[in-house]
Amino acid sequence: MPGEKELNANLFDQLTLVERIERQAQKGDIELVKEEIDILKKEINRKLYQQPPLTDKPEP
Question: pLDDT tens digits for the chain (60 residues)?
Fold first, then answer.
C-alpha cells in the first residue's frame, strides 16, 4: 500500500491536471480543452506503461 507521501504526490498530480484543463476551459476554446486532454492522456499512458515499471524493485 502506498504511503502518505506517495498518495499526496498523486493527488497533487491530479489537481495539476484539473487546473490545466480548467485554464483552457476558461479561455472558452473547446479545441484547446480537447488538445490539453489529449496531451494529458499521452503523459499518463507514458507513466503507466513505462519500462521498467515503477513496481519493479532493483536487485541489490
Answer: 667 888 788 888 888 988 988 988 898 988 988 888 888 888 888 877 877 666 656 555
Q: How far is it, in rounded angstroms, from Cα 48 to Cα 43?
A: 9
Q: Is the pTM of this model over 0.70?
A: no
Distances from the Cα of 47 to the Cαs of 5, 12, 25, 59, in angstroms?
18, 15, 25, 21
Number of separate helices (H) and strands (E) present in the chain: 2, 0
DSSP for 7-24 reads: HHHHHHHHHHHHHHHHHH
Phi, psi of 48 (to 5 degrees): -65, -40
48's grid cell: 503507466
